[in-house]
Amino acid sequence: MRFFKTLLLPIFTASSLHTGVPNIGVPITTVQEGPLSMDISLGYHAAGVKLSEPASWVGLGWSLNAGGVISRTIQGVKDEGTNGYYASTTPVPWPMTGTQVAQYGTTYDGEPDIFSFNVGGYAGKFFINKDKTIHLVPKQDLKITISPAGTELFGSFRIVTPDGTKYYFGSSPGDGTTNTARELSTVDDPAMLATSSWYLRRIESQDGFYSITLNYTNENYSFKTPSSCEYKFIFCLPGGSNTLSWNCSANSIDPAHFYNRVMVQGKRLSSITAGVTTVTFVPTSVGRQDMEAYPPLTTPLPSALDKIKVEQTSSYCTEFRFTYDYFTDASHNTIPEGKRLRLKELLEISCDGTTSKEPFKFTYSTATLPWRLSHMVDHWGFSNGASSNDSKTINTPSTTVISGGTTFTYGSSDRNSNETAMLEGSLTKIDYPTGGNSQFVYEANDYPTTETSNYNDYMLQVSNCTYPHVCCGTQFSESTRSFTAAELSGASYKFSLINPVCYGGTCSPQFPIQTQLEIYQMPGNIPISTSTVLNIYGSTCEDTIGGLLINLVNLQPNISYRFKVTGTNGKGNFQIYKYAQITQTINKKVGGLRIKQITSSNGVNTANDIIKTYEYRSDINPANSTGVLFYTPVYGYALASGGLQMACFRDGAITPMSGFENYHIGYSLVTELFNGNGKTKHTFYIEPMSGYGSSFPVIPEPARLQNGFETTGNTLDAGGSVVATSSSSLYNDSYVLPNGGTNNKVKAFSVSTGCPGNDPVYIFSNPYPMRTRHVRPGTVTTTVDGVTTTNTYNYESTGTYAPPIDASYSNSDGKTHKTEYKYPWNLTGFVADTLKKRNIIGSPLETIIKVNNVQVDGSRADYALFDKTTGARLTAGSSNANPYPWQFYRYEATFDANGNVVAGAVYDLQDEIVNYYGSASPGKGYPQTWQKTTGLPKPTNGIRAEDSKSALIKVLLLNIPGIPVPAYSKKQKPSTGRKVGTTTINSAA
Prior knowledge:
Number of helices: 6
Strand content: over 45%
Distance between the termini: 28 Å
Shape: globular
Radius of gyration: 37 Å
Mean pLDDT: 87
Number of strands: 54
Structural class: mainly beta
Largest sheet: 37 strands, antiparallel
Low-confidence stretches: 1-9, 934-989
Helix content: under 10%
């Protein structure tokens, strides 16, 4: 068991660069037990604050990363409910009869719930079809099983990773039907409680000898969230009356702010135990001010995390203590909705208080935020500072729909994004115990879009003077101009007189204030129309006439006219113009923040600062953003069926505002600049939109799992010269539709109009598929210092397993190098069956290295079953058996004088494990006795005599398939004509 704590600087992965959101975190400790390990850390989500979201128990924007979780998004009703998706094994019908449409619109659930998971470095989603098969999105070599708990179908989950490690969620073996780590929630109605989260309960090694256990305690609470409101225009046809109605939650704080109450029967992490180590999570003794108790109770209130205590018997004890205050809204600081928990400091100190470090300190852009029920939000729920929205019951922007041939417009809210408001409450600096710090500068997301605007295209402007306050006396000005027929068609005019007094000017005498317009056809000195005169009396500032030019004077095309404006004690101005439109590309701000700059400082000398700046602009047109907005808001829809016509408006978009991948915008090119020392350009693949359609109900956007795949990366030095390049392409995996159908899910919607007649309820439905695929590289090409290497990967043909079956590359030596891999799923027999049953499938058992298709190297590990208690090898299957590596082979090649492999190369048995420590032994699960087939004496205590240090590394890591093992080298005297390298046991590709 060991602990470590190091400085964790903000980092970017390909996916976070693609979205502009960096990974910011603070490490706390790592728990280890045998081959198992689990990091405990704090993570900060830097995409901005959504006003309706409550803070976690470690502060707004922060999360405690300790263990893992499976969470659920309920589609319709919970799948395991009375009329849930699994109530019937019959596929959802399509097309539907009228009776079926009514059933699925009012009673049955046509959509499976979506489950998300994050544990042990694996993350993704899955859904469960009616036949109870689980489908991972994207495909991964994980094995997921479900266990009921009493009447609860989803009592617990177990995820087994490709090295056989088991992760138990909700409960672990031995917990029985106790709700150990399941969190239930509902909105407004306690009778509708459903499990929303299954927390990690236990990690267990594949042989069951090692484990890490997570313990929880109950914590019930509630909070308010803005209600979704709707306004309807309903037409009862034929001959019926028209009605207007609006609908919000029954709960309200004031006439404009309605809310729903989210009630949670929660679980709070209390401790983690592993061997001799215990990590305890101690809550604050005082309840939080920004949350509420579970109704109808008023206490207890939920707690914040006060400290994390790490103990290892009597030899080690340290604490990590948290300090908080609150973001507040001054106008609502007496109610929970006006506050949000804010993390200020994190201090590491010995348990007896004698030794401490400087704390982590966290600085934010502001200490204030609008309250959680505020309507001052943009389309994505981020603050936009539009205070006029807060007086509106239904927060809908101006929206137009057409129903029954009639156009209806409703709403006047400002839901546009505002960068200044969006920056409020964001983390701007972390001060580290070392004295250094990281500083963050953000900006709003944007994307390029075309915008058409109207403007006046002026063809003529004549004024008798320049500024109103110097227009005293009588002055004139004239201009000669001819017009084309196109210019005259639809042309307008404006003739105005401006009083200089209104602009600080005076004339003596002040009156008369007048102007005169005269128009002459050239050549000639007689006006072709009656002279037009404007007069101003008293304090009037301006007099203006205007309209279509033809109503003033009938000008003919291609004839010259002279226009004369004369003014006395005022400014006369005559204009001829046409209304015109201009379409241009602009970068439009949208919800959420992206990182603009990160400065990492040692706190001593700013000359040593590491500054990274990020640009999201096109190489082709540097003025344009490279953002791609995947989802646009729509607030209204029209329905028509039989005697129904309806126009509906909502204050929440009816289209999804984030996709299956949980983000709404991505960037195709991001440039990372390094302190003036060069830059790297990252290009990302943007998968085409398949479209969720315009009909209602709107179906969800299918998973687009290729989004954010980095296709190229070019690094340039300070002078702009390319110093390294990389390019990648995805393997030609295809999307698959589980069960082979495209219409096995249906979103249904029912509406009751209250119209007279026999059928006042109308049902609308749309089918959609749910799909998945692998996301893995096909080719990767890199060029460094003028040397180009291309790696090509191939995979097994059925698409069942993720690892490559071979990888080949070519470089400047002109030869083709290829490595082939064989896995447990390539083999048969009771040992292979046991490995596959335990999902120990991710590490190759045999590696074959070829040059120009001739094998030159290779290694092989044979597994066998060993008795759990005695450690002895078994020759047949047994319920008391564990699979472990048994024999290790190395390919011994003979080379001629030119370095070519000659005939006779074989696999040589290098090592053999006789037995393993039994379950009652101190080193349970690890090799006990080694045997070397070449005749050297057996080592003592499992460590090879000739190289104890390297052998120890091998012994300790052999039982962790899926993790690359460091090379173990042994000294050997080469036989004549033979080249013998190092003996390397690889357990991963």
